[in-house]
Amino acid sequence: MTGTLECKACHSGRISVFHEQDNVPVNSCILLNTREEARQFPVGRIALGFCSDCGFIANTAFDPGLIEYSARYEETQGFSSTFNRFHRALAQNLIDRYGLYGKRVLEIGCGKGEFLLLLSELGGNEGIGFDPGYDEQRMQSDAAKRLTFIKDFYGEAYSDVKADLVCCKMTLEHIHNIADFLAMVRRSIGDAANTAVFFQIPEATRILRDCAFEDIYYEHCSYFTPGSLARAFRRAGFQVLNLDTAYDGQYLMIDAKPATGAMDAPLPSENDLEMLSQYVSEFPARYQARIAEWCETLEASHSAGERVVLWGSGSKAVSFLKAVDSNHRVEYVVDINPYRQGHFMPVTAQEIVNPDFLTDYRPDVVIVMNPIYSDEILSDLTARGITPRILTL
Ligand SMILES: [Zn+2]
What we know:
This protein is of the alpha/beta class.
């Protein structure tokens, strides 16, 4: 790549690359039917750049043409009781905050439609959801009568769809041209000044601070902190009402509304540029150290003749295996989502198995990909009479 890199959030040329990875699987959640298909899965390059003007972090080597969002994209967390409790509380909270009873909600990137369904069930709301990976076979509820799903990316063509709440969860991080996208959403809302806007994305301060390398993957081309997210929203013409984190600090959430007059003063949590540049400068050394530590752990288990499995086959597992298991010490990956079982991990090609498999396999070590599910996983293992060592990321 030549010339100056441009920040896709603020258009400055002050973005510099601080972290690079090659041969990264380009999708994390695509269902792959055979080990061979998994081994041949396309790879791309990650070159994370940090914008010293706005704090936005992006994969500057991202090629949107490599990514597939389709019916074989299986990302739902809806089989976890921990996640479902969180999701339900989040929906109720939004309903209470914005008086969403008998109102209309537009969701950008609705996945399998679970969140719209909650908003419909809990508040009697109508909803319209956009997602190319939506699957109508899996939507079974009376409240679904109030919902419409469009298997497409949301865009300017749908600006006639008006709503009391525009929500967008775990989607903005997949979008490359952030400034263009947020400006499009703002234009689509037009002069409907009372539209509430809610976005949820991964929280990148934690990724940098804790060196959470498992949370860096190809599909996520854009990474935000409270400050950079708020700045991107203001630039697009939104008033920022609130910034918050949830799910053990893994999610960042923003409440906004269309700005009609002068902008409010920034919130205190937006003042994060100095801290971020510190974390960014420390990241490369800490990344090397964390990778080395996990490689040693896996090699030690292998030397001791231990059987090691991962629990959780989503994006974190894809990153983890690619980064630390080049010697293929992990044989299987467990997932409670039946739609993922029997498929294979991209590139590293481990089979994804049902937890029932462990009853015979008797793993010595289970590496939990997301510590928030540790209790849920531990009770599952205990109920099966399996007592492996549990390691968490
Ligand atoms: Zn920027």
